[in-house]
């Protein structure tokens, strides 16, 4: 990942109360998830802290529980708060998702900003 600002989508592409995955690195697999709650956007790396290299969705964009109240890891059912990313149930209780910094510009473009989007460490 280059240390640059990347446009993920337009705000209109993010339905309120839903989650979307993004593949800004063009790897063929989403590495960022974004949840919209009204005017607020919550962005995280799509990596479960239980096993740090595990993508969380069982199908594309399926990051939330049925009620849309928590982010879910499909692997072992961990639940994470949408606001803050803390694990509140499951095998990684007490850990948290890794946040990424998002910004919406005047045109409504949603940017992934560089300072908190670090390359994957293997
Ligand atoms: S890998 Fe996510 S809960 Fe186990």
Automatic annotation (TrEMBL):
Keywords: 2Fe-2S, Iron, Iron-sulfur, Metal-binding
InterPro entries in alphabetical order: Rieske_2Fe-2S, Rieske_2Fe-2S_sf
UniProt GO MF annotations: 2 iron, 2 sulfur cluster binding; metal ion binding
Matches recorded under CDD domains: Rieske
One Pfam short name: Rieske
Recorded superkingdom: Bacteria
Domain Rieske, residue spans: 6-92
Protein name: Rieske [2Fe-2S] domain protein
